[in-house]
């Protein structure tokens, strides 16, 4: 049976995510009734989507060691509530704020309703957005750097900007990063990435810009 399955591609992943979101939005789930635990909801949706894909396609499923859900496609799933659309992701380096996370994001944004009559929960998926890896940098950092470069910034200006933005990078690495920015200006990212031991990703801007900006696709 497995040999009959086709290999999963990014366009198929996007199509299946849209189909899954529509189906799941009509589903009632007793196991989630009464819970406000975002991690539990996220795990439920991610696992259910993986089960949806598993019977249709061949693909390598990511592990916590690999860090992302679809390592071959370089895509990670993020599930978040519409009340506060954000999640965390592993910190690799300060460079991610400027040049992106290094992989694309498939973001499901849900609104949860509990039905006391049936004692079940409904997850209405309001937005399903695919953010291509080139758009996964921090908006204020990348747009600020582009403004500096348009104003003939030099290495010192860029290092000073890093300090103002409290970019988590040591002095020598900051100089190297500034040189890289001068040689290879970054594209504009559309995430809001807050400094922490893990990056805190916020998705309001990608939700607002989905379908309007290249590299941010509104699937649903």
Report on this structure.
- Helices cover 35% and strands 23% of the residues.
- The chain has 220 residues and is an alpha+beta fold.
- It has two domains: 2-89 and 103-134 and 195-218, PvuII Endonuclease, Chain A; 140-183, no CATH class.
- Strands 2, 4, 6, 7 and 10 form a five-stranded mixed beta sheet that branches. A three-stranded antiparallel beta sheet has the order 5-9-8, with no helix packed on it. A two-stranded parallel sheet has the order 1-3.
Q: Any chance you could write out the topology, listing elements then pairs?
A:
Blueprint: E1 6-7, H1 10-24, E2 28-29, H2 38-54, E3 57-58, E4 75-81, E5 86-89, H3 96-99, E6 104-115, E7 120-131, H4 139-150, H5 155-164, H6 171-183, E8 192-194, E9 199-202, H7 204-209, E10 216-218
Parallel strand pairs: 1-3, 4-6
Antiparallel strand pairs: 2-7, 5-9, 6-7, 7-10, 8-9
Helix pairs in contact: 5-6
CATH class placement of the largest domain: Alpha Beta
Task: Please tell me the overall pLDDT.
Answer: 95
**Fraction of residues in helices?**
25-40%
Could you tell me the number of beta strands? 10
Fraction of residues in β-strands? 15-25%
Number of helices: 7
Named CATH topology of the largest domain = PvuII Endonuclease, Chain A
- Give the helix/strand class: alpha+beta
* Radius of gyration, whole Å: 19 Å
CATH architecture annotation name of the largest domain: 3-Layer(aba) Sandwich
Largest sheet: 5 strands, mixed
Spell the H/E element sequence.
EHEHEEEHEEHHHEEHE
**pLDDT < 50 runs, ≥5 residues:** none
- Tell me the distance between the termini: 31 Å
**Shape, principal axes of CA atoms:** elongated
The total number of structural domains is 2
């Amino acid at each position: 049976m497995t040999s009959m399955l086709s290999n999963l591609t990014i366009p198929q992943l996007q199509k299946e995510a849209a189909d899954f979101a529509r189906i799941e939005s009509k589903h009632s789930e007793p196991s989630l009734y009464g819970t406000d635990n975002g991690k539990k909801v996220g795990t439920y949706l991610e696992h259910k989507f993986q089960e949806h894909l598993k019977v249709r396609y061949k693909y390598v499923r990511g592990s916590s060691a690999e860090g992302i859900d679809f390592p071959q496609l370089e895509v990670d799933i993020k599930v978040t509530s519409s009340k506060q659309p954000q999640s965390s992701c592993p910190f690799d380096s300060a460079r991610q704020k400027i040049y992106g996370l290094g992989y694309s994001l498939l973001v499901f944004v849900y609104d949860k309703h509990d039905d006391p009559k049936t004692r079940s929960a409904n997850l209405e998926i309001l937005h399903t957005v695919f953010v291509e890896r080139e758009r996964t940098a921090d908006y204020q950092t990348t747009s600020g750097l582009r403004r500096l470069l348009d104003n003939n910034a030099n290495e010192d200006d860029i290092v000073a900007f890093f300090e103002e933005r409290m970019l988590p990078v040591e002095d020598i690495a900051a100089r190297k990063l500034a040189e890289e920015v001068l040689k290879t200006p970054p594209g504009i990212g559309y995430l809001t990435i807050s400094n922490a031991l893990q990056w805190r990703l916020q998705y309001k801007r990608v939700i607002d810009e989905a379908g309007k900006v290249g590299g941010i696709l509104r699937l649903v």
